[in-house]
Specification:
The protein is of the alpha/beta class and 486 residues long. 35% of the residues lie in helices and 21% in strands. The chain contains 15 helices and 20 strands. α5 packs antiparallel against α9, α8 (218-224) packs antiparallel against α10 and α12 crosses α15 (474-484). It binds ligand BES, manganese (II) ion (MN) and zinc ion.
Length: 486
């Protein structure tokens, strides 16, 4: 879908569908009001009404979409309204549409960005493996013209940012939705190489299983041992040549399928464990977005990738794994594998001497008990970093909420027979996992985002979410990275 920006008024522009975003409790323009019964459209959030102006206004069809009251309006509402609109336009099989942005609700660039993200995410579907679909089922809207008021340049800049970020989220969704068989660690590495080819500012390096063994990636190797698909370590670097810019490492869990290993998971729901590379998918999306935005930062995306399978070569409960850092892990449960591969990824990140390490992972089922599917859990060794991330989450709608990393939690992951153990019991399961990880980040500012509850939705509630992969983590972290250069 193409999104263009130009000045204009939706009622005066010829269009197959003109989208008018309208506030609750405010009068519609007279020509529009004359086309409907007032009680049929009040402007409640995401309410829609289609009317046919028949020459009273320029568009063939006019789609009203509610924004709710002006007082409560937010960028999130704009994104949702845009997503609602594009789904309706698609349903009408209209090749193109115009959409006028509401005026007087603050920063024009931010409104343009929110609209573009809503359009791209609302239009997202994963149809790769569906066959025999009819043309009306696969139909996609070709182009949307965003009509801006006086600030056309600012809106255009915001729309460009929204496209960069929206495309990053869509990339992450595609990777999460793809079946495990088609994104084994070597295939995931191929995707990184492809990203490097699309984004010339991104340099990609892949460590194969031999290189991993040479370098001593004991955690990645242990978890990957049981699978016929060998593990990989993926490095995607952007902005290494920039001077006087912050360096941030973004580390993502790339567990391409988590069967649990010898501590095998129950059959129910195991199919959704193809989403266990959601953290790495977010890293792909963030790297894409940062490169497309051309942010003045040095960003290093790091992805330890393995498949957790039961076999005669699997790592066992009771094994002791020597990680890249030299620190040892007592394996008490092979299903707590994320922290084992991330231990290597976090240690590797230290060689960049980064200003911050942000790690994303579908790490614990316990986080769904704590926060549901509503927010990502944020844990950090640095309060300023935690605050900045939570605030970026609120701004973008890709929400994060903080959990503590107090000393007691670090005690809970100590082992009698190794340095740490990969299982600390049910109590505070998400936090002990976070404390485990923090122990591998050295003295660097570190944040852990547990996206197990947000990376995948069986019943999406927001119009810009779709069933399956959500791309959570992309918007919150990209917004944080943008804030570094403001
Ligand atoms: N990948 C899972 C966590 C997960 C659960 C992600 C639900 C997405 C949705 C992780 O590897 C895992 O299996 N965690 C175990 C840890 C336990 C064995 C300590 C869990 O949460 O049950
Ligand atoms: Mn697991
Ligand atoms: Zn896992």
């Amino acid at each position: 879908m193409n999104i263009d920006v130009r000045p204009g008024n939706v009622l005066e522009e010829d269009a197959a569908v003109g989208v008018l975003l309208a506030f609750e409790g405010e009068a519609l323009p007279d020509v529009v009001a004359s086309l409907l019964e007032a009680e049929d459209f009040t402007g409640k959030p995401n309410q829609t009404l289609l009317v046919y102006p028949k020459g009273a206004a320029a568009p063939k069809r006019l789609l009203l979409v509610g924004l709710g009251g002006r007082d409560g309006v937010s960028l999130e509402r704009v994104s949702q309204a845009a997503a609602t609109a594009i789904r309706q336009v698609r349903g009408l099989q209209a090749e193109s549409a115009t959409m006028e942005l509401p005026a007087g609700i603050g920063d024009a660039a931010a409104v343009g960005q929110a609209a573009a993200e809503g359009l791209l995410l609302g239009a997202y579907r994963y149809l790769v493996h569906r066959t025999g679909m009819k043309a009306d089922e696969t139909f996609e809207v070709g182009s949307v013209v965003v009509l801006a008021g006086t600030d056309t340049d600012a809106v255009a800049a915001g729309v460009a940012a929204g496209i960069a970020i929206g495309d990053g989220v869509r990339l992450a969704r595609d990777l999460v939705n793809r079946p495990g068989e088609l994104k084994t660690p070597p295939l995931l590495a191929d995707e990184a190489v492809a990203l490097g080819q699309r984004q010339s500012a991104v340099t990609v390096t892949i460590f194969d299983e031999h290189r991993l063994a040479e370098e001593g990636f004991g955690g990645v190797i242990a978890v990957g041992k049981g699978s016929d698909s060998p593990p990989r370590f993926i490095i995607m670097e952007y902005g290494a040549d920039l001077t006087d810019v912050p360096t941030v490492c973004v580390v993502g869990k790339g567990l391409t399928f988590d069967s649990g290993g010898l501590n095998i998971k129950p059959a129910d729901g195991m199919e959704s464990m193809k989403n266990d590379m959601g953290g790495s998918a977010a890293v792909f999306g963030i790297v894409h977005a940062v490169a497309a935005l051309g942010l003045p930062i040095h960003l290093v995306g790091l992805i330890p990738s393995a498949e957790n399978m039961p076999s005669g070569r699997s790592y066992r409960p009771g094994d002791i794994v020597t990680t890249l850092s030299g620190r040892t892990i007592e394996i008490l449960n092979t299903d707590a594998e994320g922290r084992v591969i991330l231990a290597d990824g976090l240690h590797y990140a230290q060689r960049y001497e980064p200003d911050a390490i942000i790690e994303l992972s579908t790490l614990t089922g316990a986080v769904i008990i704590a926060l549901g599917n509503v927010a990502t859990a944020v844990m950090s060794t640095d309060q300023e970093l935690a605050d900045a991330l939570v605030s970026a989450g609120t701004t973008t709608g890709d929400r994060g909420w903080q959990l503590p990393l107090w000393d007691e939690y670090y005690e809970m992951v100590k082992s009698d027979i190794a340095d740490v153990k990969n299982l600390a019991g049910r109590a505070a399961g998400s936090i002990t996992a976070g404390a485990f990880l923090a122990g591998f980040a050295g003295d660097y500012k570190f944040a852990h985002l547990d996206i197990a509850g947000t990376a995948w939705l069986d019943s999406p509630k927001k119009p810009y979410d779709s069933k399956g992969g959500t791309g959570s983590g992309v918007r919150i972290v990209t917004e944080y990275l943008r804030s570094l250069s403001n």
